[in-house]
Amino acid sequence: MQVDFIIVGCGLAGISFCEQLRAHNKSFVVFDNKSQQSSTVAGGLYNPVVLKRFTPVWKSKEQLQMALQMYQNLEAEFDVKLDHKIPVYRKFSSLEEQNDWFTASDKPLLSEWLSTNLIKNTNAYIEAPFGFGEVLETGRIDVKCLIETYKTYLLKNNLFYEDEFKYNALQVNDETIFYESIESKYIVFSEGFGVHKNPFFKSLPLVPTKGELLTIHAPDLKVDFVLKGPVFLIPLGNDLYTVGATYDWNDTSNTVTDKGKEELLGKLKTLISCSFEVVDQVAGIRPTVKDRRPLVGQHSIYKNMFVLNGLGTRGVMIGPYVADQLFKLIALGIPLEKEIDIARFS
Ligand SMILES: Cc1cc2nc3c(=O)[nH]c(=O)nc-3n(C[C@H](O)[C@H](O)[C@H](O)COP(=O)(O)OP(=O)(O)OC[C@H]3O[C@@H](n4cnc5c(N)ncnc54)[C@H](O)[C@@H]3O)c2cc1C
C-alpha cells in the first residue's frame, strides 16, 4: 500500500493533523494501540483565558478560531454533537480578586473574553460570597465522542490499524518510508507521552503530568455553567458533573488512585455543599513541556520524519493550530514559529 503519510497516535494531535490531510487530499493511515489516554479522558474545556492570572492564553484568538472551525466541520460531516457551548464562571475568593478581574477586563484581547458583569451566586449549594466573573466564548468539546467517531470513520475506510507501532520495523531512506507492507512519503509521530519510547524523538524534553478526574452524580446541584474554583466542575447533563483535575509529576501510569480521589473530593467539598455520589474516576498523562509550548518539527537527520506533540493542558484549542503549522511546513516549506519548533532545544 502506498500513502502520503503514516500517522502514529489518534489523540487530539493525530486527529488534528489527519484533518489537515483530508482537507488537502493527502492519503494516510493511522496507528493507535490505546496505550495513552490523555485525549480520551480530557475534560474537553476550551477557554481563551488563564484563570489563575487573568491573562490571555498564548495565541488564543488564532487557536480558538481554528479549533472551533475544525470541530464545526467534523460535526457537520459526521452528524455528531461535539461542541457544547457553555460559560465558565470563575469564583472570586476575595474583593482583591474581583478588582484584579475588572482591571484585566480593560486590557486588549481580554476585554473580549472577561465579562464586566459581576455575577452573584444564587445557588444555595455553592459557597461563593464574592460572586463570579464570566468568561465568554468558552465551551466543552466531547473528545471521547470525537475519538470514537473518528476511529469509526478511519476503520470504515481501511485507514486505521489498532496496533502498536513498532519503531524497529521502520525503514527510512531519503525518499520513502517503509513500514511492514506500507510505503509512505512522510511519517508524523503524535503519541503524546508515548513518545518516550520513540527512538527518534525520545530525547525531547517532554514532561509527563498525570491528571485524574471524577464524575459525580449530584441531583440537587442544578448548575448549568462550568464552575472554576479550587477545581473545575463541568456539567455533562442528567445531573452528572466532571470534577478535576489533579496534577502529578511523579506517577506515569494511567491508573486511578485513592490519593487523586481524596484530593479532588477535599477541594470539591469547599465548593459545593449538597450530597453527591462518585460514579467514575479516570486518569491520563498530559504531554507537557517546561516552556509551555508544543513540540513540533522535523527530525534532524531523517527529513521525512516529523513530530506533533507537547499539547500540554490545552490540547482541544492548541491541536488544530499546531497541525496547521506542521502541514504548512511539510507541504509548502513555510517555517514553523520558532516558539513551537523543536529546533529550539537543539
Ligand atoms: C485529566 C485530564 C484532563 C484534561 N482536560 C483538558 C481540558 O479540559 N481541555 C483541554 O484542552 N485539554 C485537557 N487535557 C489535556 C489534553 O488531554 C492533552 O493536551 C491532549 O490529550 C494531548 O493529545 P495527544 O494527541 O498529544 O496525546 P494522547 O491523547 O496521549 O494521544 C496519543 C495517542 O498515541 C497513541 N500511541 C502512543 N504510542 C503509540 C504506539 N507506539 N503505537 C500506536 N499508538 C501509540 C496512544 O494510544 C494515544 O491514543 C486534559 C488531560 C488530562 C489528563
TrEMBL record:
Task: Give the protein's recorded name.
Answer: FAD-dependent oxidoreductase
Under the heading Gene3D superfamilies, the entry gives: D-Amino Acid Oxidase, subunit A, domain 2, FAD/NAD(P)-binding domain
Which spans of this chain does the record mark as coiled coil? none
Gene source species: Yeosuana aromativorans
| Top-level taxon | Bacteria
Hey, what's the signal peptide range on this chain?
none
Cellular component, GO annotation? cytoplasm
Which Pfam families does the entry link to? Answer: DAO
Sequence ranges assigned to domain FAD dependent oxidoreductase in this UniProt record:
4-326
